[in-house]
Structure formats: structure tokens, C-alpha cells
């Protein structure tokens, strides 16, 4: 964009003075991510879709849709949605579904939602949803035609809205010709002198009466209706021969440079063949895996420095926590276990001593429920002390006071092995994980605003740290990780035992002298699985390229 992008965690309160926009492809990605959340699945399926029978929360009461066009970095016009419109949809979503703030923040993060502050914009009003779907389909075909016209054969971009991103196909729509009203938007920011002029909107199907009243710079050539778009094949995306013939027959108009005409190849020998893209995808996956490992290695090094400071100066406490839930309903909590390692400095002698404590607590309300069918039951086999039974409310106050006491004068590191279910259990217990805990370990050492302690409570995932320690992207369970470091375990799935073994695994990785064995069978297994997955994906890509090549050759054959 011509102006800086701004990452969003929410769309705000819908203030009318807010003139920010969100690209439509980002909004569609947001809707897709919402459907993965259990509580928001029905809402997103009923209200956030472009089907004739469903209500779209972004549309006006008269079923019309008003968006804006802005220019991207290469001067092409893209559709964008006002933040104020999205804020109303978001408030309705959060009110009706009651999604946890952390779950919604994860959705926004996975969707990569950001806002833009365009220097200029143009409002585009679509009469109904069919007109809007027609515009999206036309945008997709226009991009394909431009790519073929320039001779560019590129992989499909998952971030661009295609026919598969929107429910319903424009090709099957029976709506009348689209009536579009364009009007200049508010000029709050002057456009840069170096910014290129805004190109015309992508091809549409205009009404003749509206075409005569529309400025020449905003007119576009109509594309003939096409068949329903098929789902994309594996491999790079190519325009169909129908789109190539459409681009070839499109007359040129004055204005910005348009793609050169494309003629039908006279023989199969001149058909453009798909390039070998398996190596490109493999390299991209390797880069992504290397980035993941580098981030986890950085977090591991940051925690090692914090651990060394705690051992040297008594400036740190570590608490490993594990929760066991009922196998038939994960909302019912059965056991809590924690293991504490606190370094305390004697003010007189200056000597730092380590204090350890491991505790196992059974939830009184669910004491009669046990896991047997899908998970082993080891409740009665706590190996590091005595088990006590307390009401769930008492457990909350006990943990809350423990967190506050340990983080009052030093940072507290809350350690889990795959914290997703454990943090969800703490939220059900009464904690606000978004406000109470810090998860970005890159901010270690900076002042933290936290109501439970001025030094903050930091969430640590030993499963992710173990990935950085192995220097391999992986998800290894607690038992297999302990076996790799020769740490004997027994009677797992007891919350107290699991917490103690998690803390022992963390301490092992904090020791710089410990490193993975060169003859490790675990590392060999991970490498073999990665190689097998790469070969399987390469075969899928080659199969998709062969199918596309065969279709190009068949279309190029002379017709009888």
C-alpha cells in the first residue's frame, strides 16, 4: 500500500471518524479462520457468507454492499472494507458467541488482519450480493488474463480471493446486469506526488444506462459469462484457454498499459508448459521450517539467560503446571499438579539456594469421575508427595495467591508441555490468560504491566523449546522427550507427576552442556518423516502439472 499497514487485534468500537480500511481478501481470510472456532462456527456459517439465502453482516439492510477501491504497491485497484463496518460485525459476533478474548486474538493473528490508511479511495456500491460475487469473479479472471498476457507463470497466491474463497459462483448467478455507483471518497490525506494514478476498476458487466453516466476512466470492458469455476488443481495456477481467448478478444482502451493480445497457439509444440515448481515449494517449506526453529532457538537462549540470572542472583521462579480433564468432557477438570523451583537469595550471606515443591490436587466436585477409556488413570499414583482434595474454587484462590507471591519480587515462568489445553483449563478456572500472562518471550527484561506482579508471569512451552533444542521442527510428547534425554518416567497422566517431569525436562534444556546425541533415533525419525513428506508433495505437484499440461495440449489441437 502507499501508506503503512497497521496490525489489528480487534476492529475497535466502530467510531465514525475512523477512516481505516481492511483489504477484502483479509476479511475473507478472517471469516475462514472464524469457522475453525467452535463457538463461532454457526455464526460465521449463517451470517458471514455470500449466499442468496443467508444474511451477510457486512451488507446494508437493503442487501446492498458498499466497499472502497484503493491502490496496492503496483498500482492495481483492490477492494477494501471500512473498519467501522467490520466493528459492527465483530461486536455482534462477540455478543452472541461469547468467544474468549484469547481465542479471538488467535483468530486475528492467524488471519493476519491489518488496516490501511489510504491517501485516496473511491467508494463502490454494489446493488446486491450477486453483483458483488460477479465483481469478485471478474477480478479473478482479470488477474489471470494479465498474468498470461505478460507471460508470467506463477504459483497461486493463497492470500488473493479466488472463486473458491466465496460461497457461490458468479458464473451460476442469474442476476440482472450489475449497476454500480462510484463516487469519490473523503480526501483526508493528500496523495503523494510520486504515487501513480489509480487504474480503472477490473472488468464488470455494466448496465448501458449507467455506462453512459460513468466517467470514461472508470469504464471497463464486459467479460462474457463463464462456467462455474472448478476447484484449483495442485501445483501452479494457470488461466484456462477460455480466459486466454477472452483476453485475446478484449479490445484495447486508452489509459494505463493493458496486456498484449494473446493468439491461439497453432500447434501443441508452442503450448506453454508448466515449469517444475516442486523445488520452489520445497525450498519455501524449508525456509519456513528454518524460521520456526530459529525463533524457538532464540526463545531457548533468552530463557537460558533468565535461568542463569535466577541461579546467580535469585532473580527468578519456575512453576511447571499440568491439568487433567475428563476424557468425555474437557470442561470438567479432574486434577491439578504443579512443581515449583524457586531460587532464594539470603540477604545476610548473599548465598542463593534452590527451593523445590511438588503438589497434586484432586477437584472435589469431579472426584467420582475417572479416565479409563481414552486416557490412562494414574490419580492414585502420585510419586512426589501426598495427594489432597479441594473444591475447584479453593484451587483457584490457591493458584492465584501462589502466582502473586512468586511474581511479586521476581519474574515467574509458568511452564507447560503444549499449553493449549492447560491454559484453557485455567480460563475455565477463572484466570484471564490474555491479561494475566505474557507469552512473547522476546520481551523478557522489559517492564511489564501485570496485575499479578510487576515482573510478570511468562508462559513457557517445553514442547516448542524442545523443537529449538533439537534444531528440528517437531511436536514431541512429554514421554518421548524425556526418553530422548534419558530421564526415566513412570505413571504419567498423573497431573503432579507430569508437572515434575516437565520441570525436569526444562532444567535439562537450560544446561548449555546438554545437546542432542548425534546417534539419536528421534532425530533420524523426524528427518525421515520430513523427507517422505517432501517426496509425497513433490509427486502431487508433478501429477497436477501433468494434468495441466495435458489439458493445454488438448485445447491446442485443431478442431474438426
From TrEMBL:
One GO molecular-function annotation for this sequence? nucleic acid binding
Q: Which organism is it from?
A: Rhodotorula taiwanensis
Gene Ontology, cellular component aspect: nucleus
What residue spans carry the Pro residues bias annotation?
A: 196-206, 253-274
Q: Domain named Gfd2/YDR514C-like C-terminal: which ranges?
A: 318-508
Chain residue ranges for the region called Disordered: 147-274
Check the UniProt entry and state the signal peptide residues, or none: none
Q: Which domain of life is it from?
A: Eukaryota
Please provide an example of a Pfam family that matches this protein in its UniProt record: DEDDh_C
Q: What is this protein called?
A: Gfd2/YDR514C-like C-terminal domain-containing protein
Amino acid at each position: 500500500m502507499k501508506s503503512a499497514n497497521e496490525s489489528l487485534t480487534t476492529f475497535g468500537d466502530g467510531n465514525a471518524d475512523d477512516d481505516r480500511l481492511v483489504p477484502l481478501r483479509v476479511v475473507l481470510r478472517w471469516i475462514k479462520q472464524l469457522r475453525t472456532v467452535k463457538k463461532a462456527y454457526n455464526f460465521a456459517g449463517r451470517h458471514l457468507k455470500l449466499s442468496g439465502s443467508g444474511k451477510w453482516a457486512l451488507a446494508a439492510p437493503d442487501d446492498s454492499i458498499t466497499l472502497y477501491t484503493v491502490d496496492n504497491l503496483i498500482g492495481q485497484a483492490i477492494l477494501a472494507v471500512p473498519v467501522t463496518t467490520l466493528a459492527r460485525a465483530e461486536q455482534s459476533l462477540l455478543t452472541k458467541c461469547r468467544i474468549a478474548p484469547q481465542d479471538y486474538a488467535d483468530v486475528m493473528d492467524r488471519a493476519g488482519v491489518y488496516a490501511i490508511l489510504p491517501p485516496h479511495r473511491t467508494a463502490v456500491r454494489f446493488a446486491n450480493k450477486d453483483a458483488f460475487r460477479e465483481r469478485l469473479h471478474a477480478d479473478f479472471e482479470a488477474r489471470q488474463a494479465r498474468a498470461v498476457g505478460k507471460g508470467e507463470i506463477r504459483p497461486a497466491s493463497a492470500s488473493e480471493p479466488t472463486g473458491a474463497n466465496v460461497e457461490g459462483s458468479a458464473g451460476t448467478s442469474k442476476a440482472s446486469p450489475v449497476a454500480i455507483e462510484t463516487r469519490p471518497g473523503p480526501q483526508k490525506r493528500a496523495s503523494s506526488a510520486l504515487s501513480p494514478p489509480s487504474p480503472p476498476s477490473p472488468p464488470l458487466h455494466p448496465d448501458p444506462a449507467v455506462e453512459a453516466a460513468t466517467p470514461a476512466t472508470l469504464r471497463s470492458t464486459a467479460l462474457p459469462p463463464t462456467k462455474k469455476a472448478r476447484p484449483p488443481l495442485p501445483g501452479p495456477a494457470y488461466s484456462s484457454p477460455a480466459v486466454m481467448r477472452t483476453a485475446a478478444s478484449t479490445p484495447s482502451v486508452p489509459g494505463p498499459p493493458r496486456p498484449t493480445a494473446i493468439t491461439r497457439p497453432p500447434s501443441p509444440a508452442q503450448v506453454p508448459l508448466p515449469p517444475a515448481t516442486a523445488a520452489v515449494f520445497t525450498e519455501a517449506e524449508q525456509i519456513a521450517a528454518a524460521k520456526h526453529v530459529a525463533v524457538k532457538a532464540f526463545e531457548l537462549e533468552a530463557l537460558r539467560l533468565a535461568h542463569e540470572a535466577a541461579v546467580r542472583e535469585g532473580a527468578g521462579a519456575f512453576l511447571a503446571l499440568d491439568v487433567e480433564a475428563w476424557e468425555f468432557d474437557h470442561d470438567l477438570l479432574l486434577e491439578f499438579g504443579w512443581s515449583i523451583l524457586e531460587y532464594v537469595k539470603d540477604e545476610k550471606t548473599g548465598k542463593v539456594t534452590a527451593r523445590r515443591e511438588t503438589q497434586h490436587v484432586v477437584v472435589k466436585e469431579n472426584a467420582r469421575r475417572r479416565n479409563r477409556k481414552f486416557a490412562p488413570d494414574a490419580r492414585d499414583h502420585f510419586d512426589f508427595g501426598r495427594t489432597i482434595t479441594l473444591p475447584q474454587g479453593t484451587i483457584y484462590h490457591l493458584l492465584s495467591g501462589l502466582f502473586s507471591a512468586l511474581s511479586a519480587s521476581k519474574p515467574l515462568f509458568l511452564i507447560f508441555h503444549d499449553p493449549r489445553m492447560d491454559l484453557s483449563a485455567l480460563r475455565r478456572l477463572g484466570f484471564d490468560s490474555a491479561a494475566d500472562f505474557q507469552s512473547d518471550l522476546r520481551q523478557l527484561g522489559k517492564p511489564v504491566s501485570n496485575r499479578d506482579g510487576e515482573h510478570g508471569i511468562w508462559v513457557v512451552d517445553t514442547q516448542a523449546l524442545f523443537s529449538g533444542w533439537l534444531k528440528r521442527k517437531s511436536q514431541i510428547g512429554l514421554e518421548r522427550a524425556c526418553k530422548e534425554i534419558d530421564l526415566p518416567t513412570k505413571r504419567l497422566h498423573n497431573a503432579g507427576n507430569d508437572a515434575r517431569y516437565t520441570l525436569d525436562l526444562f532444567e535439562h534444556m537450560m544446561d548449555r552442556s546438554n545437546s542432542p546425541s548425534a546417534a539419536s533415533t528421534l532425530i533420524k525419525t523426524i528427518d525421515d518423516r520430513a523427507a517422505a513428506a517432501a517426496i509425497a508433495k513433490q509427486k502431487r505437484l508433478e501429477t497436477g502439472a501433468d494434468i495441466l499440461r495435458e489439458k493445454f495440449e488438448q485445447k491446442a489441437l485443431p478442431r474438426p
